[in-house]
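ARCHIVE CARD
CATEGORY: sequence design from structure
SOURCE FIELD: tokenized fold
FIELD CONTENT:
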């Protein structure tokens, strides 16, 4: 599927968090990030004339921070970490960054991108990923304009690039991106995530259930590892709005799900409580058995607690107990786990954490006929 190139900027900044834009250039990416309502935008630019242009643009934008210099020198000095990083620094030394060019100017620019980059510049460009590790938050999205030319194990998006009226120049460019997970930039995160519940509904679910939960504790040794559970829970009361959101946001491809017929729990974690490495399947059942769990949907209802981060491990068959992604979900965010994944909820250290778990079995999902 083809997308306008600005869709990449939407993807990088969709968390509305802290964004790093390396290379101000035309200012297109910076404008898009800023207009997306990000928490902060940091720009690194090494050309003095372009830096002055960025300064003028940022004059009335207090959450935009500029650094003059080469990224290879600036990045190690930064005391901030980022949710999204975009890097596009390859351009002719005399590029004027005028957005509307003649046919000849576009063709000259195109030829530069494919013929004029020295080996030294290219090796430096490829090293950017290692520098980005110094400033990336867990699950940070990294997008490098020419990423696909030096890594093939990444995600790609085919986007439209405007090269003026010259149809002899290809209009598409494959842009690559990765996620910073467990100390490396990887193709995949260990979980899916969707922001779908309104805050008001989260507050309603908490109010309707918090006084009725029953404390549960369990402990079991499996393969020499102690698994522990300490929480307070109750079956979720039927909520029409919650059911509607699930069907519209998560199960649109399936026949409407009856919330009363699936396993739903409201869970409370008090201070000192957590959940250690639980498996999202019924042991001994084949994955395709109709009574086997196929997905777990984990909804966070509040964020006024400390601790309680979620460790999401890769699939169980890899048997890797040291590599996992850490996330602190936002209010209304749904984390989605695959079969045989392991998840640890770290102990809450202050206040209470509220959660809804929806456990879906194969038999619960019936495809809509086309």
């Amino acid at each position: 599927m083809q997308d306008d190139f600005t869709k990449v900027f939407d993807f990088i900044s969709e968390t509305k968090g802290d964004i790093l834009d390396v290379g101000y250039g035309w200012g297109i990416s910076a404008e898009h990030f800023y207009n997306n309502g990000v928490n902060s935008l940091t720009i690194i630019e090494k050309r003095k004339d372009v830096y002055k242009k960025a300064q003028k643009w940022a004059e009335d934008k207090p959450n935009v921070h500029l650094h003059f210099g080469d990224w290879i020198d600036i990045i190690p000095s930064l005391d901030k970490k980022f949710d999204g990083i975009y890097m596009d620094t390859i351009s002719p030394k005399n590029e004027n960054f005028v957005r509307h060019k003649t046919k000849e100017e576009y063709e000259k620019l195109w030829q530069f991108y494919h013929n004029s980059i020295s080996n030294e510049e290219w090796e430096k460009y490829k090293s950017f990923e290692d520098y980005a590790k110094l400033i990336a938050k867990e699950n940070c999205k990294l997008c490098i304009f020419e990423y696909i030319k030096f890594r093939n194990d990444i995600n790609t998006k085919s986007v439209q690039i405007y090269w003026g009226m010259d149809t002899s120049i290809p209009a598409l460019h494959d842009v690559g991106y990765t996620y910073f997970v467990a100390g490396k930039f990887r193709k995949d995160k260990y979980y899916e995530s969707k922001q779908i519940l309104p805050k008001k509904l989260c507050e309603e679910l908490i109010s309707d259930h918090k006084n009725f939960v029953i404390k549960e504790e369990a402990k079991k040794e499996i393969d020499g590892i102690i698994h522990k559970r300490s929480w307070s829970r109750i079956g979720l009361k039927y909520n029409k709005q919650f059911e509607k959101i699930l069907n519209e946001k998560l199960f649109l491809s399936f026949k409407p799900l009856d919330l009363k017929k699936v396993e739903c729990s409201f869970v409370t974690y008090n201070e000192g409580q957590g959940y250690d490495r639980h498996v999202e399947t019924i042991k001994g059942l084949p994955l395709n058995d109709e009574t086997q769990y196929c997905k777990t949907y984990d909804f966070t209802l509040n964020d006024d607690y400390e601790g309680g981060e979620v460790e999401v491990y890769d699939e169980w068959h890899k048997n890797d107990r040291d590599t996992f992604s850490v996330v602190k979900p936002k209010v209304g965010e749904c984390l989605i786990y695959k079969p045989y994944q392991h998840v640890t909820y770290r102990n809450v250290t202050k206040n209470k954490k509220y959660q809804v778990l929806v456990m879906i079995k194969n038999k619960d999902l019936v495809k809509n006929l086309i």
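CARD ANNOTATION: The mean pLDDT is 87. The longest helix spans residues 103-115.
SHELF: design records, drawer C
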